[in-house]
Design a protein that fits this description.
- This protein has 116 residues and is an all-beta fold.
- The chain has a single domain, classed as Jelly Rolls, CATH 2.60.120.10.
- The chain contains no helices and nine strands.
- Strands 1, 2, 3, 4, 5, 6, 7, 8 and 9 form a nine-stranded antiparallel β-sheet that branches.
- A hairpin with a 4-residue loop joins strand 1 and strand 2.
- The model has no long low-confidence stretch (mean pLDDT 95).
Amino acid sequence: MKVNRFTEVAQYTAPNHHNCSSFRLQGWDASDSANFWVGLTHFLPGGGASYESTPLEKVYVVLNGEITVLTEGGEVVLRAFDSCHIPPNEARSVTNRTNNPATMLVVMPYPEAQGK
């Protein structure tokens, strides 16, 4: 078992994200998770991630506040404990359109080419 205390996890810079703070909870250099990693991001009002796709699927779970997820198929507002799955290669953007901070958990596999 590998326990990571939030007070001790490292902050990282998530590519193409703005007005947010991201923390790696498990995986990469935080644990020996072999198939996926878990991150937590606090989005300030107006914060988010640019509209783009990646070859990796991802799961978003909003823990606090509201996050708007926009895809080619439309947009949805996720609130506390709502979740969504973004398939591989589906473009998306993420935005906190409220005046309150929002917190989101992200679960993703490792890129095949990089591995852990």
